[in-house]
Design goal:
This protein has 10 helices and 22 strands. The protein has helices at residues 27-38, 74-90, 107-122, 132-138, 161-172, 222-227, 292-305, 331-336, 346-349, 366-381, and strands at residues 3-4, 7-9, 19-23, 42-46, 62-63, 95-96, 100-104, 128-130, 148-152, 155-157, 176-178, 181-189, 192-200, 206-210, 213-216, 235-245, 253-256, 265-269, 272-276, 314-325, 341-345, 355-360. A hairpin with an 8-residue loop joins strand 17 (253-256) and strand 18 (265-269). The longest helix has 17 residues, at 74-90. The N and C termini lie far apart (58 Å). 50% of the residues are buried.
Length: 424
């Protein structure tokens, strides 16, 4: 068997438009993998741990209507709302559409409310003020001193199920998925990518996977992966702490009606309530731990919105690292970085053609991130193949564990009756 740089060479799968290696087994990687095989590429995904073991498996699971971003960036907000509608069509089993309430605690919050509603409506988000009495009836644990309430079509994401919809659908279409497989080097020759050298973390064996293109969908670790290709990629890993208590205190996502800050969202997840998050910066997402002060701080912030939160038994605290696009010298600078995403062509920027990094973004727009990334892949290889993932219902997440994948017609199951379509 041939080798590259002394590593064993794995067979290259049969291909149509070409073979693409996707690095990163989070939600974005799964969506990219499915889009690639849907457009006629052969694709292999490698993940150094288990699927969703990075940021995807650690976020609080809010399905953003875009309302949180509307005042600062109408386009990002509009994209979030569009993707919520799409996810409701293609992966309803992974969502809970219980809507959300933005509540004002001060007169300053109330003054912000008018600007907030106008911005949401401009971004096609159907935000509407509701009477305080109605808000308190809908969510009895809310602070009775709230002064204003605005309802928006937020919801929650099952952070495990949603990626599995994409992984199951991709694998059924022929994609290969290799977990516990770490990229040691992104290889190239004559200015073009040739594949990746990987290490099986169970056996410590190294081998090479040849590829026509390589896509890094590694989030906060994208800078580390780019360095393995000799490329300096400006990414700011921005960890944040979340705290969960052992009771579902709210059915809607509860948010503080003010410019985005720390600890201003409470997300219901099954039998838990999760408040998030704080934000700081790190050079290495692998070494992040939860600052003890964050737990006290977040519990206090949650109690401002729902006083009972402080008296509810503690369940867990953890951190997740956001992959902010760009570099920032301070936490405040990091807050100013866009929540948008970029698909970077390193052939254009760094003289290694066929290597792409995806940075930024958020869980709600994982499908859109994949679409724009695979659009770039198609452009680079001269393929005119439109994206169809917005119209294609995904296989059930359970199909990932079934030896014979279910048909696509099975993608709508009994759970779908719990999902309401968002009306603009």
């Amino acid at each position: 068997m041939p080798s590259v740089n002394g590593a064993r060479q794995a067979p290259v799968p049969a291909r149509s438009h070409g073979h693409v290696v996707v690095i990163g087994g989070g939600g974005t990687g799964g969506a990219i993998l499915f889009d690639l095989v849907s457009r006629g590429f052969t694709a292999t995904l490698v993940e150094r741990g288990e699927l969703t073991s990075g940021t995807t498996g650690r976020h609080h699971g809010q399905l953003h209507s875009g309302a949180r971003y509307a005042v600062g960036d109408r386009e990002i907000a509009r994209e979030c709302m569009e993707e919520v509608r799409i996810l409701q069509r293609i992966a309803p089993e992974a969502l809970e559409m219980n809507y959300g309430l933005f509540v004002a605690l001060t007169q300053e919050d109330v003054a912000f409310g008018a600007e907030f509603i106008d911005a949401c409506q401009e971004a096609t988000i159907p935000a509407r003020e509701i009477p305080v009495e109605r808000a308190l009836a809908m969510e009895p644990h809310l602070n009775p001193a709230i002064r204003m309430a605005v309802q928006v079509p937020d919801g929650t994401i099952d952070a495990w199920r949603l990626p599995l919809h994409f992984f199951a659908s991709a694998r059924a279409a022929g994609a290969k998925i290799k977990t516990f497989t770490e990229v040691v080097e992104v290889t190239g020759a004559n200015g073009s990518v040739t594949g990746v050298t990987v290490r099986n973390r169970a056996t410590d064996e190294e081998y090479h996977i040849s590829a026509d293109l390589v896509v890094s969908a590694t989030g906060a670790w994208a800078g580390h992966v780019a360095a393995r290709a000799g490329i300096d990629l400006p990414v700011t890993p921005a960890p944040g702490t979340m705290v969960a208590v052992k009771k579902r205190l709210n059915n809607m996502v509860i948010s503080h009606l003010h410019p985005a800050g720390d600890g201003d969202i409470i997300v219901p997840q099954r039998g838990l309530s999760i408040v998030g998050s704080t934000q700081w910066q790190t050079d290495d997402p692998d070494t992040v731990t939860v600052p003890a002060d964050d737990i006290t701080y977040l519990t206090g912030r949650a109690a401002e919105l729902m006083p009972v939160f402080a008296d509810t038994p503690f369940h867990a605290a953890w951190s997740a690292s956001r992959p902010l696009a760009g570099s920032a010298g301070t936490v405040e600078d990091g807050r100013k970085l866009s929540r948008d995403f970029l698909a970077i062509d390193h052939g254009r920027n760094d003289a290694l053609s066929g290597f792409i990094s995806v940075i930024g973004g958020k869980a709600t727009v994982l499908r859109a991130m994949a679409e724009k990334t695979v659009d770039l892949v198609c452009e680079l290889v001269g393929v005119d193949q439109p994206c169809r993932t917005a119209e294609t219902p995904l296989l059930p997440h359970r199909a990932y564990y079934q030896p014979t994948p279910a048909s696509r017609s099975d993608a709508s199951g009994p759970d779908n009756s719990r999902t309401r379509e968002v009306q603009a």
